[in-house]
């Protein structure tokens, strides 16, 4: 693999390579010096066309811990304000000898476009997607995976540790690139994945599939979706079913048969939380919403906000994740966010450096 743009085609072996490599870098980071000479002489350019706190800093620190030289670009203070294009910006960094480009953009597909341009030019530059629009955020999902797997087995984090675990992803799934990458990795692990959101914040594709499967319009408030059939479902149905099902939350039906599926959809929180091992909560991404989609924040917190009280439905040792940034008191209570018994939010940030070291190392050393 020359670029990391999506987790859709990641193999189990690739997940395990990243997890194991990250574990060895976690050990390096626990040493006094914290640094290895692995990427000495290489250049890592952080091309962030959209704001970031943790992803950009984490990639920068990861590159520095590997002894690479780093270049940081922010669109607002760049020559894009004078009309320079994205591809010309990337080619400018190429001309300075960049080996790895870490790219974030508010539009889906920009990292892919830069990767295609580098391939077309015949240069050996790797592109890492650091979050593109509503599409994917692979390094975030890999650090989420690492955080969970290394909690279960710190010495040997691996994909199979999640087999049979119940994982709930709650919130604005429609606009979440993190959720899309999480879905690929958690499904690949063999986990039982439950998505819970108001009907307006679940991708329409999923809701259409529920209706298609049930053969009726009022299919109920729950359903399941088979990741392998995603492409098929995309060609089915043109009804505005998300809107229709908004009326159904008052009359829940039993869930559809789920015996062959790992993915469950819920338009209520409680079935997703019931006996969950891990709960991932997501921010309402107001910057990607049209105004009519934005729910009342108080009502949203009541219905879908995660609190210590609601966690009582989960397994007793449940852990809570959040990719950040957090809107305290909306998708998660402030008290729960800061509760070290349940919250893995700070561990996720810490894990991010080791996981991004692993990605940069695997791409930079040609071992990916
Ligand atoms: N999780 C995440 O992508 O955070 P930032 O937007 O701060 O990078």
Automatic annotation (TrEMBL):
Reactions that this protein is recorded to catalyse: carbamoyl phosphate + L-aspartate = N-carbamoyl-L-aspartate + phosphate + H(+)
Binding-site list for carbamoyl phosphate: 54-55, 104, 137, 140, 324-325
Protein's gene: pyrB
Protein name: Aspartate carbamoyltransferase
InterPro entries: Asp/Orn_carbamoyltranf_P-bd, Asp/Orn_carbamoylTrfase, Asp/Orn_carbamoylTrfase_sf, Asp_carbamoyltransf, Asp_carbamoyltransf_Asp/Orn-bd
Segments forming domain Aspartate/ornithine carbamoyltransferase carbamoyl-P binding: 3-148
GO molecular function, one term: aspartate carbamoyltransferase activity
Subunit comment: Heterododecamer (2C3:3R2) of six catalytic PyrB chains organized as two trimers (C3), and six regulatory PyrI chains organized as three dimers (R2).
Entries under PROSITE patterns matching the protein: CARBAMOYLTRANSFERASE
SUPFAM superfamilies: Aspartate/ornithine carbamoyltransferase
Record-listed E.C. numbers: 2.1.3.2
Protein's pathway: Pyrimidine metabolism; UMP biosynthesis via de novo pathway; (S)-dihydroorotate from bicarbonate: step 2/3
Organism: Nostoc paludosum FACHB-159
Stated family: Belongs to the aspartate/ornithine carbamoyltransferase superfamily. ATCase family.
């Amino acid at each position: 693999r020359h670029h990391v743009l999506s987790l859709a085609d990641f193999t189990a072996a690739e997940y395990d390579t990243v997890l194991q490599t990250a574990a060895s870098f976690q050990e390096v980071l626990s040493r006094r010096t914290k640094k290895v000479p692995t990427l000495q002489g290489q250049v890592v350019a952080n091309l962030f066309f959209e704001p970031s706190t943790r992803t950009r800093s984490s990639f920068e620190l990861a590159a520095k811990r590997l002894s690479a030289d780093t270049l940081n670009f922010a669109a607002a203070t760049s020559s894009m304000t004078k009309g320079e294009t994205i591809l010309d910006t990337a080619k400018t960094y190429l001309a300075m000898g960049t080996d790895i480009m870490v790219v974030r953009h508010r539009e889906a597909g920009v990292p892919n476009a830069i990767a295609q341009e580098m391939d077309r030019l015949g240069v050996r530059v790797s592109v890492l997607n650091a979050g593109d629009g509503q599409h994917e955020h692979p390094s975030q999902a890999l650090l989420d995976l690492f955080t969970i797997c290394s909690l279960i087995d710190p010495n040997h984090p691996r994909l199979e540790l999640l087999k049979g675990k119940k994982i709930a992803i709650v919130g604005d799934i429609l606009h979440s690139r993190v959720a899309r990458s999480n879905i690929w990795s958690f499904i690949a692990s063999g986990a039982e994945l439950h998505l819970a959101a108001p009907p307006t914040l679940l991708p329409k594709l999923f809701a259409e599939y529920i209706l298609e499967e049930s053969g009726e319009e009022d299919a109920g408030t729950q359903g399941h979706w088979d990741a392998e059939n995603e492409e098929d479902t995309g060609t089915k149905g043109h009804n505005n079913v998300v809107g229709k099902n908004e009326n159904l939350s008052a009359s829940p039906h039993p869930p559809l048969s789920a015996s062959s599926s790992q993915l469950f959809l819920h338009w209520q929180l409680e079935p997703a939380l019931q006996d969950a091992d891990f709960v991932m909560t997501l921010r309402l991404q107001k910057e990607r919403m049209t105004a009519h989609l934005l729910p009342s924040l108080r009502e949203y917190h009541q219905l879908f906000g995660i609190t210590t009280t609601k966690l009582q439905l989960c397994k007793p040792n449940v852990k809570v994740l959040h990719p950040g940034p957090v809107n305290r008191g909306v998708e998660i209570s402030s008290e729960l966010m800061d509760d070290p018994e349940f919250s893995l939010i700070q561990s996720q940030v810490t894990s991010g450096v080791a996981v991004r070291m692993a990605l940069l190392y695997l791409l930079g050393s040609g071992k990916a």
